[in-house]
Write a structure and sequence with these properties.
alpha+beta
Length: about 170
C-alpha cells in the first residue's frame, strides 16, 4: 500500500502535533513536493541544527513507503504519489530519511556517518501528528530538528502559517 510501511517502529523518539488550516489533500500535496525539493539539496549544518561539526554540509534523501520498502521521491515517484493523493488523501504517510553529512577540509569533502530516520504523518480533520524514529547514526540532526525543518518548509510554501504547533494540555 502506497504511503504505509508495514514495519514502522513502535518506539517513537519524537511526537509532534500541529493544527492545520488547509485540507489534508492540500497539505499532503505540499508535503510531497517539499520533501522532493529538499532531496539532495545541500544545506549547511547550522541551517538545520546547532552545529556540532564546523564546515559540515548536509544532504537529505527522502523516500515514501510502499508496503515493506521505500521509494526515493524522484520526479516520477512524486507524480505517482500526487496522483494517488488527488484521488483520495492518505490517512497516514510514512517516509524514510537518510541524512548524509560531509565535512569540508582543505576543499575536500570527507563523508561522515549518516543518520537514518523514519517519519510518520497521521492526518486528522484539523490536525496532523508527526512521529519520528531515529534508526541509527550520530544524531548530528535531532528528531526535533527534522520535524522543525519539514514544518518550516511547509509553512514557507504558503502565504500564511498553516501548521501551528499544538501545545500539550
Amino acid at each position: 500500500m502506497l504511503g504505509f510501511y508495514e514495519n514502522f517502529p513502535q518506539n517513537i523518539h519524537k511526537t509532534a502535533h500541529f493544527t492545520i488550516s488547509v485540507s489534508n489533500k492540500r497539505l499532503q500535496q505540499t508535503l510531497i513536493r517539499i520533501l522532493q525539493q529538499i532531496n539532495a539539496k545541500p544545506f549547511k549544518l547550522e541551517e538545520i541544527a546547532d552545529p556540532s561539526i564546523p564546515q559540515c554540509t548536509v544532504l537529505f534523501e527522502f523516500g515514501i513507503a510502499e508496503a515493506n520498502t521505500f521509494n526515493f521521491l524522484s520526479n516520477e515517484e512524486t507524480n505517482k504519489v500526487l496522483k494517488a493523493i488527488n484521488k483520495k488523501p492518505f490517512q497516514l504517510t510514512d517516509f524514510f530519511c537518510a541524512i548524509r553529512y560531509y565535512k569540508t577540509e582543505n576543499e575536500q569533502k570527507k563523508p561522515l556517518k549518516f543518520d537514518y530516520y523514519m517519519i510518520r504523518f497521521i492526518f486528522n480533520k484539523n490536525y496532523v501528528e508527526t512521529q519520528v524514529f531515529h534508526e541509527r547514526g550520530p544524531r548530528y540532526i535531532s528528531p526535533d530538528d527534522v520535524v522543525n525543518l519539514v514544518s518550516n518548509k511547509i509553512n514557507e510554501a504558503f502565504s500564511r502559517k498553516i501548521l501551528k504547533p499544538l501545545q500539550p494540555s
